[in-house]
What does this fold into?
Amino acid sequence: MEIAYQTDVGKKRLNNQDYVGVFTNQQGATLALVADGMGGHRGGDVASEMAVSHIGYAFEKTQATEIEAVVKWLIYELQQENERILEKSQQYEDLSGMGTTIVAVLISGTRFLVANIGDSRAYLYRNRRLMQITEDHSLVNELVKNGELTAEEAERFPQKNVITRSLGVSSNVDADVTIYDFDADDALLLCSDGLTNMVSDAEISAVLATDQPLQSKAEALIDMANAAGGLDNITALIVHQEGGQPND
It folds into this structure.
């Protein structure tokens, strides 16, 4: 298994409120995290770094390899981190209202779980096909689901950045968690909306289909988002399950 990632401030923002990290526990399981912070002039970067660092370091101390057991652990850690972000935002005026999205992939053996809160996404690239495997927790996605907007109208929706779930905004934590098989030659992409608002799924798929090194693919995605305007911070993390016999 190989992992590469890149994060960039983009063309319009003064600081990078995205945060990314990869962690390994004591049994060799891997946790990859991407968070996109929001709020205050420095609150967003504090919230995203808190979420990734605290959950990642807690994972490094664990022994778990069974995916089902890890689900309970991750949900608990997300709840704990939500409380920590809420508490800190109430302690410091310049952090008031801070919060963060988070998308996580935990890989153990030939299976992985994906969890998300907000609109940072996970994609599975399998057999040269790109599939979004998280659902955006956003106002625009709710309007599309309810039939109030078409997919084309959603692209131009002025409140596209309004999210309906995040860490650190309310006492309730509601993460979506799903378990998948991780087959030979599969790739996973975790990213913030600074990528997906600038680069189409077809363009992402084309980059993942190339033979260039994994780090070059991550950098290419960042470059494409910046070339399209770079309106937000941009993060791309790619995990590749190397070849061999596909799972049964």
User: Anything to note?
Assistant: The longest strand covers residues 99-108. The two ends are 18 Å apart (CA to CA). Helices lie at 43-60, 67-91, 139-145, 151-155, 193-196, 201-208, 214-227. Confidence is low (pLDDT under 50) at residues 244-248.
